[in-house]
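#struct-queue
[09:14] JT: dropping the first one here, sequence first, then the structure tokens:
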Amino acid sequence: MRKLFSVISLILILYFAHTTLNAKEVTFKWFGQACFLIITSNNTKIITDPVSMNGYNIPKEIKADIVTVSHEHFDHNKVEAVSGTPIVFRGLVKGGKEFAKIDRTIKDVRIYTVPSYHDKEQGKKRGLNTIFIFEFDGIRIAHLGDIGQILSSEQINKIGKIDVLMIPVGGKYTIYGRDAEKIVSQLKPKLIVFPMHFKTDVADFLPYSADDFVKGKENVKRIDGNCYKLDLNNLPKKLEYVVLNYK
């Protein structure tokens, strides 16, 4: 019995050691508006749509490897607020009048873009907007920037299958409500939907909050802080709506 107990104990120790050593996770931190820090399991750091306004700030100690800018509005393009010497991908060129064509692999991350509009009038009111897709660790993330339109079939095909969706829901300058829900149904993200660009005590000029968007939905997780860790070895079985706090 003692030998059997010793063998079982050894097996358990080896199992948990193996699990710990092979633990893989992706970290998401939200700093307000459409600004996220995404950290891959290989510690590559991506900042999306950098922001610096009122209480929305990127901590100085974070040194990014990659920065993406969906469009050139002041609450999405504060590249100078990011520490380090990141590679910067701007989705728009020539003063925001044209789309850049991006399909690059940096370290363990493939990044490509899909053109879209900031409004329902094909950009005539608020201009152009770039959707960024990130591929790494066997997952695919879509960051929709300040999208203001329902997706076309061409855009859906270019975006492809998505595991994690970052979608604006605050209205006024972007989609909200039924339009946001429509895009979720169009893209069918497998794991997580992160609402972004919504009303808070900082962004009180936006009419709709994250709670307005997730009201009545199943599998809603409200995080006290601004950080969510996705365990790649224990993925959600059903789609989760994760609401982060910028603080």
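[09:21] JT: and here's the second one, same format:
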Amino acid sequence: MDLSIVISLFNEEESLPELVEWIDRALAPHHYDYEIIMVDDGSRDRSWEVVTELAEKYPQIRAIGFRRNYGKSAALYCGFEAARGDIVVTMDADLQDSPEEIPEMMRMIREEGYDLVSGWKKKRYDNVATKNLPSKLYNATARRVTGIKLHDMNCGLKAYRNEVVKNIEVYGEMHRFIPYLAKNAGFDKIGEKVVHHQARKYGKSKFGLDRFIHGFLDLLSIWFLQKFGKKPMHLFGAIGTLTFLVGAVLAIWLIVAKLVAQSHGAPFRPVADQPLFFLALVAVILGAQLFLTGFLGEMIARNANERNKYNIRRTIR
């Protein structure tokens, strides 16, 4: 099979018939062998009934329906598991992503050797204050942290080699960082294509400003897990040891200074009367706790089921 199109949807009953017709019209001239995997993320409207009706008309449609709303990451995870096409494309169900971009994205993967091609909505039709400006700030931060030079990391329209989606785990709200997940799984040939963005035709956006706060926190989480997930002692142990040594040196210096002054008959201030001594004690205690945190984290990591899970590219037998 050439292509799998994974569509996550939530309360999109009005846009679905138009979307499927648009996909069919855009791909018909290319004669692809393709499937459409629609994942209903616990919609409360008639979305599932509409999907059922469309599946009777379009045999290439497969569908998964959640009992409740789990989020976009869960929907993509299930869609990726079910995908059979050599190339997997994700797109949103709100008609803001154009299916006419799919053939060129497929060409970039097949002919130019990309593992992943991400869309870039260079010209957006969203509210400037609530979406455009926060999105630019968020993407600038993501580029700095991940090292991936994408203008729009969270664009819903993306194309992947099948092996990419089979070797990454999308969970929580990590759908925003799929390119980073792919990079850390060894798929580092990541490209970008300017895509046409359309104004929302039906309903309203399911995401608010809080997604940028959550997105930033998730970005820090995934960066930490990828960098120190299997070696937590390298972070906590190093910081803990340094903090402990600084505190210990300060405490010893204060005690020695007091003893020297006392031995020479010079006036001195009791060690326990000096705020710096208590700061030194706090540093010693905090350093010890950080070191123990790293030690416990190391024990957990060494007993994790995936401690020796690696993505193998090729073998010779």
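[09:30] RK: nice, looked through the second one.
[09:31] RK: The radius of gyration is 27 Å.
[09:31] JT: good to know. The chain has a mean pLDDT of 86.
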